[in-house]
Known about the structure:
seven-stranded mixed beta sheet, 317 residues
Amino acid sequence: MPGLRVAFLGNDPWSVPPLEDLALSAHRPALVLTRSPRPAGRGNRLRPTAVAEAARRLDLPLDEIETVKGGRGFDALAASRPDVMVVVAYGEILPGPVLRLPRLAPVNLHFSLLPELRGAAPVQRAILDGLVSTGVTTMVMAEGLDTGPVLLQATESIDSEDDAGTLGKRLAAVGGRLLVDTLDRLAAGTIEPIAQDHALATLAPKIGPADRRIDWTEDAPAVLRRIRALSPEPTALTALREVPLKVFSARAEEGRGEPGTVLQADKRGLLVAAGEGAVRPIEVAPAGRRRMTSAAFVRGYRPEVGERLGEVPGGSP
Length: 317
């Protein structure tokens, strides 16, 4: 079976496994489009996206552009004459003129079981919402927010230890295989798009500053879900003595006290009272500092039993 001519759009590290799977399939991309390098790190050096690095490693035709809505990006996409435009974690809402460029279809790989969790943060919201399973969906893109008809889906369990990083990585791997299967069936003409039931739709909006703040009045399981959902980035936040503190991982333990109160601060690290139960942070990072164990934080910052962790002053660090 001959492969389809594919233009691939993506920016995120989670875009890379699907790109790698396509590169090994009959549908090796004829063009990869990704965002231009951005300043990053302490030296503000220009850093290419993970997709740009992968495309170079895979020896795929690459163009780094600001947008495909117009200008050079749109022209490059149109000139590639794609049968299918594949979009994975690209982060830009695409208008009708872009969606109409491919001969067969614009196909999006979305990291949820649509119509559940439409939007920019389906992996994080699945954990925040306490779901026990989620999945990936290939769909024909429409101008609405993840409203297009579904092509294929695959379900994936959410482990109690999963954070957004581990779950997203696993979904990207599952999604890569699903994407190749989808294009195989599109090429063979053996797939029928199925309209979503919009009445069942739920939303997964972009994570904002308010989502990052730990509310210690919530019970320990809810606090843990927030920490897991936002790790390894952008991370959940609290503060000690008005110094912002990122929390990367934690576990629930027995304990009781006013929410946010430090119950222990010793060689085992911190133990903090929640609305019900207690939370022991495992890895943390004070503002501007490297990631460290909770025990190392206690040694360096010497929090005292009875102190309160609370709101981050002046927003996120």
